[in-house]
Every structure is written in structure tokens, then in C-alpha cells.
Amino acid sequence: MPYQSSITRTYTFCAAHRLHTDQLTEDLNRKIFGKCNNLNGHGHNYTVLVTVQGELDPHTGLITDVDALDRLVKARIVDRFDHQHLNFDPAFAQVTTTGENLARLIWDLLVDQIPSGQLEKIGVIETRDNFFEYIGALQKPVVPSAIGSRRTDAH
Fold this sequence. Notes:
elongated; alpha+beta; 3 helices; disordered C terminus; Tetrahydropterin Synthase, Chain A; 27% strand
């Protein structure tokens, strides 16, 4: 049986957000979200952990093309969110900008784009005390692919 392994890469971006939902009254928003409901928002230096799992390529010993993964995350995540206000991102138009929802959105933006291997989980460190992790819906088995080639399995 081939070896299954994983690699986790870290990425950072700075962004602002306001914890607020139109589904609640102003008073309930203040009660639930406290100082994070500040009308002007507040900022974080986010760290995102992207974990890819898969079989080791027998020739390289790698799971995925790390350079391609870095380019992907920079283009789809870092460039999109760095120095932005998350509440103004269209993906958060109907969703509260919690760390839980940010981790899920990052998953959705990456899951079908991983160069080889399979996205295992997303971690988001928002503060010293707040770490969020998202592991997608029931995952399919990893389809082996050569390092540097795109996945072509149907979704």
C-alpha cells in the first residue's frame, strides 16, 4: 500500500471585519459579538494553514507541487483578502465574517484547485486565542497524480 502523508503550508494576510448579522437586532449583535461588533470593524493578522494529503510520488517523495500550491493560495486567498475589509467581499454578503465562515470560504476557494493530492483541512489563526479549522464534507479518496500536473478527476 502506498504511503499516505500530508503537508501543511502557512500563509498570512491582514484584514478587517465586523461581526454583525442583519438577522439579529442591533442590541443582540452587540450582546453576542461585543467589541467585535464595532461599527468601523477591527483588524487581524490572519495565519492560514492549508493541509494537503495524498500519496507520496515515488520519484520525488512529494505529495504536491509546493510552488504551485503557493501560487494558488497567493492568487486565490492572500491577494483577495490582504488589507481588505472582509464584510465588503461578495462572499460575505449573506454570511457573518466569523473565523468559522472564513475557514469554510477558503476551503471552497481551494478544494477543486489543488495541484495534486487532496485538500485535507484549512486552519485559520485569527488571534492568540482563536483558531478555526474546517474539514470539508465527506471527502473522496485521493486520486494519484503526477507532481506538477492538474487533477482531472470528476467532482
